[in-house]
Give the backbone structure.
Amino acid sequence: MTEKAQHLLVGIDLGTSQSAIVTSAGVRMVVDSYVGWPVDAVARKILKKEVLFGQEAVENRTMLEVHRPLERGLLKEGSDKDQQAIRELLSHLLDIAGIPEVRKSGGKVRAVVGVPAEALRVNKQHVREAMRGLVDGLIIVSEPFAVAYGLDALLHAMVVDAGAGTTDFCVMKGRYPTEEDQRTLINAGDWVDDQLYTLLGEHHPGMSVSIHTVRDWKEKYSFIGKAPGKVTVSIPIKGVPSQVDITDEVKQACESLGPPVAEAMLDLIASGESEYQDKVRQNIILAGGCSQIPGFGQYLEQAMNQFGGGKRTRSMPAPPVASSWQRTPRRPIGKSCRTSRVLVQHRAAGFVVRASRLHRVP
C-alpha cells in the first residue's frame, strides 16, 4: 500500500448549484447539485437507474422527483427525500472520485467539506451525519474561509463569495472567523435567475420557457454595465418560436445584484476596527460563479470610492480562454459563466484539500 493510499486527502465544495471534489491523488470532478429519483415504474424502466445526478437529472426531470439538497445556502430539511438527497450527492461525489475503492483497500480518507457560511452555522451537524461512514476524518469549513486560507489571505482581507444560493462575506483578521466576521445574503445567482425570469414574463406575455433555460441564458450572456453585444434568443410565445432581444432584461437582472452586495460588503468592513478598514478595502477577493459576471468586480470597486477607495486584488480564477462575448458572425459563443464557475469550484475544492494537509483531521 502506498503512502498516498494510506492518507488520501479529499476536498469537497458543496454548492447550491454545483458541487466539486478534488483529491490529493489528482482527481478533479464537478457535478450539478441535483438528485433525482424515478417517479414510477415506467420511469425506472426507461431510465434503468434508481437515482440520477447533475445534468442527467435535469435533462430527465419530467420522469424524476428532483431535489436540490441546498437552497439559499441551507440544507433543505422538509422531507426524508431532502435529507437523503444530501447523502446521495456526497456519496456520488466520493464514488466518482474512487474513494470507496481506496477505503476497501485499507486506505484512510480524510476530508474537508466547504459549505456556504449560513449552512455551516445552521446545518453543520446534518453534514456530519450525511458523511458518517463515508470517510475516516472530517472537517467542515465555510467556503469563503476555504478561499481565504487557500490564498494565504488570512489578515486584512475580505472574501466575497457570490454563488448560486447565497453571497457570503468573510473578513479575515488573522484567526478563524467568528459569526461576527461573516455575513450571508440570499441575493445571488438563483435570485438573479428569478429576477430575469420575472422580467421576461412581464415583457413577453405568453412565453413558454423553463427556469433552467433562463439560467443558461444568464450564465452565457450575463454582464453589468455596458452590454458587450446584443442578446437574442429563441422563445416560444403562445407556441410560436420567436427571436427576442433580451439584452435589457439580462442587464437589469444582473445589475440588481450589485447594490445589496456592495451595501453588505461595506457594512461589514465598517463594523471592524477603524485603523484596519482601509487595508481590508484594498484586499477584496471575489469568488463564486457570480464573480465571473463581466463588470461585477468593477461595480464593487466603484462602490468603495465614496469610502476612500478600494480594489479587488483577486478574482478566482482568471479565465484562461476567451469570454462569452467573443463573436461569430451570428452570436456570442465561447466561455460562459458556467465554464468559469466549474473552474471556481475546482479551485475552491482544491483549497480545502490544502487546508486538510495543514490541519490534523480527527
